[in-house]
Write a structure and sequence with these properties.
This protein is of the alpha/beta class. It has 14 helices and 15 strands. Strands 4, 5, 6, 7, 8, 9, 10, 11, 12 and 13 form a ten-stranded mixed β-sheet that branches. It has a three-stranded antiparallel β-sheet with strand order 1-2-3. The radius of gyration is 25 Å and the shape is globular. It comes from Kwoniella shivajii. Keywords: Lyase, Magnesium, Metal-binding. This is Mandelate racemase/muconate lactonizing enzyme C-terminal domain-containing protein. It holds the Pfam family MR_MLE_N.
């Protein structure tokens, strides 16, 4: 047989006979067998008593509470007595968000809390001046609380309202190293013992616009140390590293294969980020300082990121974060919510994760370096067990609304104390010459 004399169609060769004999079909995996009929609902729907009373879902009050370590909680109550909680934390700008919330509260009393999309549209579109971190964070706090209310009124978890669950667990990562990264190996070992399989750390501390290349050596060494114990690590450049240094650092990190590099350049540098993207195989993540789909759009269209990181407490709450995630999927971009914040933002992020195909991992602030003074992720919760980390992930939240229970008495008491204190502000970094540097 030759190319000039091909074998007739329908006949076989010795090679094809052997291939057919050796072909085998593996049995379904355990997970495939478990989910052969899809993911089943683990809950029974039990609507709140007020669900059957006309007018009971009107907004009665909107309050906000600044609590340590640096969080801003929002409480919305309906005429029917259903309370929803949200989070509008904007680190370092607490009082600005509180001012916006006072304005929002005036406007929304009497509106139907169940009409989340209408309220979101009104708050965003009917203000003429739109977007920005302050307004969007205030909207986030209210929006998350409204989803909490709707879930509680209807007797279902928020993920049920977002189209149902697509997974039963959400991967999470914890922090190591702090603002000025150090002791990362010891901290990574602790995180591994706590059940994490992934961590994140700042890539550098204060760094000059064009610094010595040796200033990057410790970053590479820290990554190598953490990976040596069998744990993956993302590196947050935090916008501290300018273009000339960022491409050097990405190249030096490449052999060590970080999980991702985050904010390798400051927001707004779309073309520059595209250039960096084309120079590295490391996944690039960004998004905590983008607040709407319109902010994300240039990065999606430029094809310069692999992971979008909306912060649900800054980006308009569950409503806008879910829309950003859907938009990202069209560009084959994963979603990894930014969330170095409190339990309400974390729970809301998980609900998006449970219902979103392109969700990849969520930040978790448990025992994070910002949580000082005895205040941590579980401080204001009465059911912290729902956030237990196992195998690098947190399980499905199954009770109505956000699925977390808060100690309202403690929140009110702490807010009264925190009012007497200066709100949290971020550290100030300066170089040896006195010049202010990126934090």
């Amino acid at each position: 047989m030759s190319a000039q004399n091909p074998q007739p169609i329908g006949t076989s060769t010795a090679a094809t006979d052997i291939s057919t004999q050796q072909a085998t079909y593996l049995p379904p995996s355990d997970l495939s067998a478990k989910y052969h009929k899809g993911i089943q609902r683990p809950i029974v729907v039990q609507p709140h008593a007020s669900a059957s009373k006309a007018g009971s879902t009107k907004i009665k009050t909107i309050e906000n509470f600044y609590v340590r370590p640096r969080w801003l909680f929002v409480r919305v109550e309906t005429e029917g007595g259903v309370v929803g909680w949200g989070e509008g934390t904007l680190e370092g700008h607490t009082e600005a968000v509180q001012g916006s919330l006072r304005d929002i509260s005036r406007r929304l009393v009497g509106w139907d809390a169940m009409n989340i999309e209408e309220i979101y549209t009104y708050l965003y579109r009917h203000r003429f001046y739109r977007g920005g971190e302050v307004l969007m964070s205030a909207m986030s706090g209210v929006d998350i609380a409204l989803w909490d209310i709707k879930g509680k009124v209807l007797g279902v978890p928020v993920w049920e309202l977002l189209g149902g669950k697509i997974r039963e667990r959400c991967d999470v990562y914890g922090w190591v190293g702090g603002d000025r990264p150090s002791d990362v190996l010891a901290q990574a070992k602790v995180r591994k013992e706590q059940g994490f399989t992934r961590v994140k750390m700042n890539a550098t501390e204060s760094i000059g616009w064009l610094d010595s290349p040796h200033a990057l050596d410790e970053t590479v060494e820290r990554l190598a140390q953490v990976k040596s114990i069998g744990i993956d690590a993302g590196l947050d450049f935090h916008g501290r590293v300018h273009k000339g240094m960022a491409k050097q650092l990405a190249a030096a990190l490449e052999p060590h294969r970080p999980l991702f590099i985050e904010e390798p350049l400051l927001p707004g540098h779309v073309n520059e980020l595209k250039d960096l993207y084309n120079k590295t195989t490391i996944p690039i993540a960004l998004g905590e300082r983008l607040f709407t789909r319109l902010d994300c759009r240039p990065y999606f269209e430029a094809g310069c990121i692999d992971i979008i990181q909306p912060d649900i407490a800054h980006a308009g709450g569950i409503s806008e974060t879910k829309k950003i995630a859907i938009m990202a999927e069209a560009y084959d971009i994963g979603v990894a919510p930014h969330c170095p914040l409190g339990p309400l933002a974390f729970a809301a992020s998980l609900h998006v994760g449970f219902s979103t195909p392109n969700f990849v991992v969520c930040e978790m602030s448990w025992k994070m370096h910002y949580n000082t003074g005895g205040f941590d992720l579980f401080t204001y919760m009465t059911n912290p067990e729902v956030f237990q980390v196992e195998g690098g992930s947190v399980g499905l939240l199954t009770t109505p609304g956000l699925g977390i229970e808060l100690d309202e008495e403690l929140i009110r008491k702490e807010a009264a104390e925190a009012e007497k204190l200066e709100p949290w502000i971020n550290p100030l970094f300066r170089g040896d010459d006195g010049m202010i540097r990126e934090w």
